[in-house]
What does this fold into?
Amino acid sequence: DSGVTQTPKHLITATGQRVTLRCSPRSGDLSVYWYQQSLDQGLQFLIQYYNGEERAKGNILERFSAQQFPDLHSELNLSSLELGDSALYFCASSVAFGAGGLGEQFFGPGTRLTVL
Amino acid sequence: DQQVKQNSPSLSVQEGRISILNCDYTNSMFDYFLWYKKYPAEGPTFLISISSIKDKNEDGRFTVFLNKSAKHLSLHIVPSQPGDSAVYFCAASGSGGGADGLTFGKGTHLIIQP
It folds into this structure.
């Protein structure tokens, strides 16, 4: 158990809809990352938040957005869903960088999104 | 354009022998490399990492080697055990010390044969 929790575990929805995925980082971790794992693309970095602020962006579509709240949990919002958005979405957390930290990220179990 | 490549989708090794998983990268800005292990229906689990200022890092049965000039790293598992059967992902990061978004390879499925 990595200490990172994600809800829901599974989500089935229709094209055009909007969903919210939730992540709670490990206790004490300030950074939250979102990744998408699809069959053909592998694990792709979407976005990172650090202590409530957006820190880095990867291959995140404009239809997707995220935020990190004062209690450090994070939500990933996916809108105008398309069939191709069906994937596993992972959240990861880390303490931060510097201060001798190795920066390894701890992953949650993922949310499997199916768009029909 | 894949910046981190794991060219072997799968690898079969006998229990007790050495498993060697390989990874190549193209982005010379990467300076921190990690290996993750993933079981079905679970998130990736951190295994071992290496900074670009080193060429080797060991942790128990796991050793990672980095050859910067060849932009190549490898993970050695000695001796291989049945519980090592999983998908192994190589990941790389820029100057954030690993604490920024990781670029992953597509993974190698390691199968340990009894």
Observations:
- The interface with chain B takes residues 2, 4, 31, 33, 35, 42-48, 55-58, 90, 92, 94-98, 101-110 of chain A (CB under 8 Å).
- The mean pLDDT of chain A is 91.
- The CA atoms of residues 1 and 80 of chain A lie 33 Å apart.
